[in-house]
Design a protein that fits this description.
Helices cover 0% and strands 50% of the residues. The protein is mainly beta. It is globular and about 40 Å long.
């Protein structure tokens, strides 16, 4: 059974930082690309960042480039999203996702088929 458990969300003031974590089980983590998506009220879910199975390749949405950093620890089956210089428009539910069997590339949003429950990130102005 695939489980992706997010943690680290919360309330922060604009300009602040948060670090999201996602612990994975039930998948071959080192053979899976990992990603973070977010969905704000009234908006479609969007891909925020993705990282290849080996951690060599990353991809970021234009809106977060230079502010967010994605990394992974394959020994701990965990992926991390460091979010700096947060803005009110970053407010959303953030979801961890896995693209199982996607080795060596980040893929596209359609490749991610396993999802966590989400963690709320709220940035106040």
């Amino acid at each position: 059974q695939v489980q992706l458990v997010e943690s680290g969300g919360g309330l922060v003031q604009a300009g602040g930082s948060l670090r999201l974590s996602c612990a994975a089980s039930g998948i071959i983590f080192r053979f899976s690309a990992m990603g973070w998506f977010r969905q704000a009220p009234g908006k479609q879910r969007e891909l925020v960042a993705a990282i290849s199975s080996g951690g060599v390749i990353t991809n970021y949405a234009d809106s977060v480039k230079g502010r967010f950093s994605l990394s992974r620890d394959n020994a701990k089956n965990t992926v991390y999203l460091q979010m700096n210089s947060l803005k009110p428009e970053d407010t959303a539910v953030y979801y961890c996702a896995a693209a199982q069997g996607l080795i060596g590339r980040v893929g596209t949003a359609a490749d991610f088929g396993s999802w966590g429950q989400g963690t709320q990130v709220t940035v106040s102005s």
